[in-house]
Structures are given as structure tokens and as C-alpha cells.
Amino acid sequence: MSAIFLDSSVLIRHFRDQNKINSFYTQIRSAYDKLYMSAIAKAEIFSYIKDNDIEYWNIIFKNIRVFPFTENTIVKTREIALQLKRKSMLIELADMMIAATAIENDFPLATINQSHFERIDRLKLITPELPELFVP
């Protein structure tokens, strides 16, 4: 069984994409058995959607298990923040929290936002730009 963690960017791009059949999210759904996401990433999506799009997103989230943000995730987020501060490469707090949840649960993270997440040690990334890593 193969599993992957999703960043909100993957679902947002799919939502906006005219060609959903060939979207990165569609490719991930066909390659991975289990889809997971941080509660933080889901909150990012739901904080920006319009009322008339809620039904669409509720259908999408029926296939995705959402992981809570825990005390352990807070500790992992702090480790990531310290690592990035040492490199003078801080990213948004929400991205650090999403990465921490993926690392804590030992899943690769699928994202469109490679430039932020590639800065984080021990985070396995799956992106449209890294197709060689797209094998479950």
C-alpha cells in the first residue's frame, strides 16, 4: 500500500486547472492508494473558498484522511523553524507545520511549491518537477 501527504497547493491547482484529467492531483490519485493531508493544509483551503464551492471541496475531502496538529507536530515545527533560521531561509509558518506533519508521519509530501519545501531537511518531496520521485 502506498501513501502520500498532500500540500494544499496540489488541490488548489487541481481546482483551478481546466484539464483535470491530466492534473498533478489526478496523477497522484492514480499512483497512490492512500491520500493524507494536514489539518493546517485543509484549513488553508477552507479559509479561501467561496460558499458555492463547499460541496466540491467536501467531495474531494471524502478521499483524503486529515491528520490533526498535535503536540509532537509542534515540536517538529520548532525543529524545522530552527533549521531554516540557521540557514536564513525561513518560510511561512503554515508550510513548516504542514511539513512537520508529513515528517512526523513519515510520508512524502506532494506539492506544487517546491521552492519552499525543498529547504527542509528529511522531507521527501513529490513535485511535477521531480518525476523520478513519483514512484510509490
Structural write-up:
The chain has 136 residues and is of the alpha/beta class. The protein has one domain (3-131): 5'-nuclease (Rossmann fold), CATH 3.40.50.1010. It has helices at 8-16, 24-31, 39-46, 54-61, 71-86, 93-104, 114-117; strands at residues 3-6, 34-38, 64-67, 109-110, 125-126. A 5-stranded parallel beta sheet has the order 3-2-1-4-5. Helix 3 (39-46) packs antiparallel against helix 6 and helix 5 crosses helix 6. The longest helix has 16 residues, at 71-86. The mean pLDDT is 92.
Comma- or semicolon-separated keywords:
136 residues; alpha/beta; Rossmann fold; five-stranded parallel beta sheet
Distance between the amino and carboxyl termini? 9 Å
Number of helices: 7
What is the CATH architecture term?
3-Layer(aba) Sandwich
Largest sheet: 5 strands, parallel
Rg calc? 14 Å
* Series of secondary-structure elements, N-terminal to C-terminal: EHHEHHEHHEHE
For this structure, the CATH topology is: Rossmann fold
The chain-level structural class is alpha/beta
For the largest beta sheet, what order do the strands appear in spatially?
Answer: 3-2-1-4-5
- The general outline is globular
What is the mean predicted local confidence, pLDDT? 92
